[in-house]
Every structure is written in structure tokens, then in C-alpha cells.
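Q: What structure does this chain adopt?
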Amino acid sequence: MQTDYLEYHDKKKLHIVRVFQANLIVMSDKTVIKGNPSEYVKLNVGGCLYYTTIGTLTKHDTMLRAMFSGRMEVLSDSDGWILIDRSGKHFGTILNFLRDGTVTLPETSKDLAELLAEAKYYCIGELAEPCNQALTKRKEREAEPICKVPLITSQKEEEMLISSTTKPAIKLLINRHNNKYSYTSTSDDNLLKNIELFDKLSLWYSNRVLFIKDVISTSEICCWVFYGHGKKVSEVCCTSIVYATDKKHTKVECPEARIYEETLNILLYESRNAPDQELMQATAARGSGMSSYTSDEEEERSGLDRLRSNKSNNPG
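A:
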């Protein structure tokens, strides 16, 4: 019995020793690193492998300095790779910041937010602060509309906008109530076409041209005005008075070709220098021989002339 007890006791002690040895093996994975600044270390950050010096990791007062200056234990594998349980996507950017003290921030808000989270984890305040500022500015910019068209409230405000911008400007003056006579049947549709064309152009060229809308002026019903270098360059008036059966009517048109032409001309004023006058004359020559009336107006006027002629020939 005594022999059996001793054998059992010895086996139990051997088991305890083996467990203790196994714990020692586990504990041996946790090491304290403190070496020469020029000594290289191997890092496995979330599966991404990096190779850098202790000097880089301890250059700034961060959590990495604590990890690699002997103040904290670090976990390593059997191949000597030091394990850091974080995403390794932006760790290269972290290392570059530690080396140079500056770094190019990511383009997207998502990557910027991820880098900010890593900078906070590693206690790198010098990197977290610009990340936070850039992220705030980017969110504000993303919340702003890309295309903004000011609706002017006074003549003074219009002059201020046009004189202060470095872009050429296009103003659409549109006020349906500035009319003394009844409108022709197509006028309302053409008013809408002018508005739609203005909206379309402002979407296309908002980054190159200042678009302004005027709905309070009493001088016109529908008129496009083009400005370059703060001065009026040209205008396209879309209204005219026509006669039908001796009664005046207001006609609104939408001369798209002419508006497109003037829009392209105004883009020549993007540079500080005035556009080439020969080029402007060549462009303007296309419309110089055109009548100020459209074919519809000519038909109405010729119809009115015929009506008057018939009345004069038949006075009774």
C-alpha cells in the first residue's frame, strides 16, 4: 500500500511539474523588449507584417514607446514576430508618421475615420488631431450642395456678387408679372424651357461659372445676361411684342442655340486676360446677319400686314 501511495504521489507531482512547465512555455511568449534604437524588430499587426527599428517605435511618446522600451510586455510567436491585435491596414501610415512627424491623410472619409481610430488606440495625439479636423471639414463639405445658385434680393447684392467673383457670371432675369399684355399661347412653355435650360447649365458649369437668378427685377420678363471680368458682355432677351388682329401680345421664346453660344463665349473669360477679339468677332459673326425676329414672328407680322392691306383696299 505504501509503495502504491508513493507511486501515485510521485505521478501527481510529475503532473504538476509538467503543468508548471507548460505554463512557463506559455509565459515565454510574453517578452519585454528593450534594445538599441537601431535594432530591427518584426511586427505582425492583424496579419500584416512590418519591419522597423526600435528607434522609430520609441521616437514619440506613444503606447508603442511603452511597448518597445521595456515598460510593457509584448506578445510574440515562435518565429519571433511581435503580435499586435489591431488592423494592419493603416499601420504603415502610423510608422511613416512616427518616422517623419507628418503624413498625407487618406482621401475618403471612411479611411480617415479608420486612421483616426488607430491613432487614438496608439495614443498618437499629434496624428489624431489633424485626422479629426480633416474629418470634420470633410463632413461639412460633403453636407454642402455642390451646385448653389444665389437668388438675388437687390441690385446692390447682384453687383457685389459679380464684382467679387473670379468666375464669369450668367444671370437669368425671369419675372412673368412684368407684362402689360396677354401672352401668346406658347409663352408659358417657353418660360419653363428657359428655366430648365438655366438649371441644366448651372449643373454643368457650376464649378466654372457663377449663376445668378433674378426674380424681382421689373425691367424684363425673361432675359439672359452674361458677365466677364465683372462687366456685362452680352445679353439675350427672350421677349418681344407681336400683333394679332390689331391687338398686342407678349411673346416669350427660348433661343437655345444663341444661349449655348453665349455661354461658351463667356467661358473665354475664365482667364485673367481678356479673350481674343478676333475669336469673339468670328463667333459673333454667325448671328450678325440674323433678324431679331423669329420665323413665327415674321409670319404673324406678315399676316398683320396682309390684314391691314385688305382693310385699306376694302374701306367699306
